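Ticket reopened. Same input as before:
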Amino acid sequence: MDNLTLIALASIVTAGLTMALGSIGPALGEARAVATALSSLAQQPDASATITRTLFVGLAMIESMAIYCFVVSMILVFANPFWNHVITQAAAR
Amino acid sequence: MRLGPDDVVLWQYGFLKLNATVVFTWFLMLVMTVGARVATRTLSTDLERSRWQNLLEMLVTAIGKQIEDVGLRQPAKYLGFLGTLFLFVATANLCTVIPGYEPPTASLSTTAALALCVFVAVPFYGIEDQGVGGYLESYLKPTVIMLPFNVISELSRTLALAVRLFGNMMSGTMIIAILLTIAPFLFPIVMTVLGLLTGMVQAYIFSILAAVYIAAATRSRKSASEPVPGT
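Engineering reply: fixed in the latest deploy. New output:
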């Protein structure tokens, strides 16, 4: 296999792995956060405004981990710097 | 495949580029400025009000209340900055219902600029509230050992602020684009509705996080002025 194929292979596999592994953690975290928020909402409906606001902010914080993974995998698939480097080298030759 | 409105170059002269991000940002600025100007042209204090005045009053009151809930005592002082952030991001995300429009928040340069505004505003308000020494001292809390971590957190949360908004908006448009090729009719509509919800939530979160950071930078004085037990 030449360099280009290797880079493509590594990028695609890594992008898939990034999404797969990177979404497990945030999914578990968000599930726990929502479950806890729901039970506290059921116990204290009066504090729903505060709980909901904190929940949304917390969810955004947790979800940003998954978003980072998504951005990394998007860069690997659509804007890969290594791929572009090899392409420009091959074009210069 | 393009990752955002940055890649749509409408006009180019040398290194000067006019891409879709800039154009849509100008469009939003125009709409919001003219809209606000027209709506506030006939303000009245009696019971008879125009509906636009009602809308704006509702918005301003709600944003002020949210800022106060976060822990900032004088919401009027921060309303200009935080309200502008919220209104700009919310309008940018909500305008995705217009066909042919691409949200400028789906470009990393826009979100990085917004995050840099927050990055500058936090020390600004902190220094204004408690002086240069007092603000710099807040980096040494709770101990001196925490100094590098406080500095790193300042930088990393700015990066997180930018990438979070960018990632959410970019993923929204990208998922719609991918779904258009797989299941062309129904699913993209559902995902567009979901994208509108995500956009509003992200606008809310962006401004709330900015408010939380400012509150953290201005809060230290309050706790320091109270007598600390045991010391």
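Residues 3-92 of chain A form a domain with the F1FO ATP Synthase fold (CATH 1.20.20.10). Chain A has a mean pLDDT of 89. Please confirm and we'll close it.
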